[in-house]
Design goal:
two-stranded antiparallel ribbon, 10 strands, alpha+beta, six-stranded antiparallel beta sheet, single chain
Amino acid sequence: MIFKSICLAAALLAAPTNAVPSTNSTKLSNDTDEPKRRLGAVERRDLGSDTKSAFVLLKSTGAHGLGHVAGCFEEEDGGFMCFSRHEANVWYERKADQEEILKHFKGWEYTNWKRLDVFNADPEQALAQLNVQKGEEYNLVYRNCQNTVYDILHDESSGFGITANFFAKNNGCYIGWVQKPGGPNIWFDEAIAATEAGKFRSGENGKCSDNSYCASGLTCCGGTCKKKVNNVGAFLVGGAGRALTTGRALNSFVDFGGEEEERIDKEESSFVTGLGGT
């Protein structure tokens, strides 16, 4: 009897006190706000597990030039849950793959993206954190678009699993501390190390901040992508314009006499007409 009691006590001591029940990945739905996993649960990620991907997407022109960010994370079935905080509302939507993600955010005039492929990803915790975010009110300092992306994607026992530690990157990736001064643009550029990064390239008349944001054959001119002008033609026309301007300036300061002045006027008029002027 005593022996059985000792064995029973040993078995109880050996049992894990923080075991987390295994659950299947569940899609987030508008009518389900219950997290599928308790936040703060003991980590159960396997360092040798396959990688999963997450995205951080930037709209550099958002928030009056400070930037606006959104995020996506890969679920168990290979699809992606995308999300973004727009002040009081948290938008979220499933996307099938990277192609669909990039197409969607390009349509929303986002400018840059980064993809982070990490080990130990936990989509269930990310979904649970997304549900938490849905219930929190917007705050300019600690509950904005940047905080929301960070909290859902980081690895502090309540997110997808991307470390914030620069010196202990997860598969070469990290997502740095969110309270970096300067807003989402600086945070995106300086505090996120990714597997792959890219820019959304605009077509003709699309928005741009430099030539790298324009599709092939276009150039950024005044914040808009325009067709490139032939350099030789631009030089010739520009040179002709400068010559005419110089000639008119000289003509206004030097008295060539009646006949000579009339000849200069005729030559200028003929040259402008040849360029398509009037």
